[in-house]
Amino acid sequence: MNPAHETAHDPAHETAGGAAGTTADAFHRVYGTHADGVWAAPGRVNLIGEHTDYNDGFALPMALPQATRVAARRRGDGRLRLHSDRFDAGVVELEVAALAPGAVPGWARYPAGVVWALAEAGHPVGGGADLHVDSTVPTGAGLSSSAALECAVAVAFDELYGLGLTRPELARTAQRAENAFAGVPCGIMDQMASLCCTEGAALFLDSRTLGHHRVPFDLAGHGLRLLVIDTRVQHDLADGAYAGLRAGCERAAALLGLTALRDLPAEELPAALTALPAELAPLVRHVVTENARVTEAVDRLSAGNPAALGPLLTAGHASLRDDYRVSCPETDLAVDTAVAAGALGARMTGGGFGGSVIALTPEDRADRVAAAVTAAFAAAGYGPPALLTATPSAGAGRLAG
Ligand code: ADP
Ligand code: MG
């Protein structure tokens, strides 16, 4: 089944029809003409499987109800006009034929990058378009607002120009936009999550093949809540550190004679750890154990036991903190406090050095967990965290209305 058809008329999107109308109205105010349609793509949290995607490994993200909407109108003259209500500095005017990596600064490089990547791959999008963007995904919170923006633009162009691309093809295009055009070396998980997730489920992702399937995740039916705690900090070393970690993993794989760390079987991990330089061994330990945690999480969810995810989350956090070293005092405090206050498990989600923490809690303890984290942040002198409740939501698609 083509997931594009699976999600195009998703009821979760239809309930957002009002939002689609608002976005279409805003488009009309900006451009003085009607949009051809409104498309949306969600932010995500990753339940488990962090820093595994660029190691060809596994991940288990789910889409958030928070989404980025793009109202769009096809043009025929090669111009690309971009407007976002979040960066309200007017309309950015570009020419599709003149798009090149490094040529577009600021937020516009994400949507322009998608158009560039489509054109570069030979797709006939040279006519251009007018786009208006609004969003309920917080930016820079580790909830992947960048992928939500790219993926909303990708599904809009796919339909405006009748490209008929598959979801994995659109994900690769969006990733290329972020890597080669926007200059951010992200993996593929964020884009696959935004494009392929389905309501009521997490998404098992094999980052090597882009094989994926839904894993039912019924929080409410099991009396559970998934809290997202946005620490509202993003430490500066995030970008450089990410590239360094990625390079470290590639070097370790090469030293082990592997294509990627995904290819190291768990039973060969002890021998590999003794053979590797001291600075690389903990990275490899994280990746191999994290892939195993994803597989185990899928088994536990498939067995109808979402509460059993808790200890895997907390173990994943310890691995990111101690082996991968991408946590920070704020995320560690949120995790420790949430678990001490009764969460079944908690971990940082996203690339690290700040961003958000997820905490799986029984519904009747969720408020206590949230209050404890807020109090702990105040006591530590940190700014207040932002709290969201995550419900597994639909992937990208066209909005009704
Ligand atoms: P994250 O993806 O974790 O939210 P990133 O730093 O990867 O953080 O991406 C955030 C950037 O994506 C913003 O600084 C902006 O350039 C762009 N962006 C995201 N959402 C929007 C939006 N609604 N309008 C304009 N730009 C956006
Ligand atoms: Mg991002």
UniProtKB/TrEMBL annotation:
Site entry: Transition state stabilizer: R44
Active site residues of this protein: D190
Domain Galactokinase N-terminal: 26-74
Domain of life: Bacteria
PROSITE patterns, A to Z: GALACTOKINASE, GHMP_KINASES_ATP
Binding site for substrate: E50, H51, T52, D53, Y242
Compartment list: Cytoplasm
Keyword annotations: ATP-binding, Carbohydrate metabolism, Cytoplasm, Galactose metabolism, Kinase, Magnesium, Metal-binding, Nucleotide-binding, Transferase
Xref: SUPFAM superfamilies: GHMP Kinase, C-terminal domain (SSF55060), Ribosomal protein S5 domain 2-like (SSF54211)
EC numbers on record: 2.7.1.6
One GO CC term on file: cytosol
Residue ranges of domain GHMP kinase C-terminal in the record: 302-378
Stated role: Catalyzes the transfer of the gamma-phosphate of ATP to D-galactose to form alpha-D-galactose-1-phosphate (Gal-1-P).
Name of the protein: Galactokinase
Gene behind this protein: galK
